[in-house]
């Protein structure tokens, strides 16, 4: 993974984390949609890079946690 790709992935993860946090603090559908888009962006970046570096594994772990949080919020809202 190049430095540029690492930075792009790091930025996407930070954006997804902020979006999921915003969704936790708010309760409108726009927040849910925005956080889902941010999660989808991270998934796309991880699929492009088939890397087994520690950074890539941490990104996968972070994505899993964000998805679990998002799913919990969705189930609480329904």
What would you say this structure looks like, in words?
This protein has 78 residues and is mainly α. The chain has one domain (3-77). The protein contains 3 helices and no strands. The model has no long low-confidence stretch (mean pLDDT 83).
The amount of beta strand, in percent, is: under 5%
Evaluate the radius of gyration: 13 Å
Average pLDDT taken over every residue: 83
Tally of helical segments: 3
What structural class should be given to the helix and strand makeup? mainly alpha
Order of helices and strands: HHH
Number of self-contained structural domains:
1
Distance between the termini: 39 Å
Anisotropy-based shape: elongated
Most strands sheet: none
Residue runs with pLDDT of under 50 for 5 or more positions: none
Portion of residues within helices: over 70%
Q: Kindly state the number of beta strands.
A: 0
Q: Can I get a quick summary?
A:
The protein is mainly α. The protein contains 3 helices and no strands. The chain has helices at residues 3-25, 29-48, 54-77.
């Amino acid at each position: 993974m190049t430095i540029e790709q690492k930075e792009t992935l790091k930025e996407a993860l930070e954006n997804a984390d902020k979006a999921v946090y915003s969704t936790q603090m708010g309760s409108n559908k726009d927040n849910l949609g925005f956080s889902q888009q941010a999660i989808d962006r991270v998934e796309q970046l991880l699929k492009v890079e088939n890397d087994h570096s520690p950074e890539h594994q941490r990104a996968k772990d972070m994505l899993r946690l964000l998805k679990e949080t998002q799913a919990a919020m969705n189930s609480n809202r329904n």
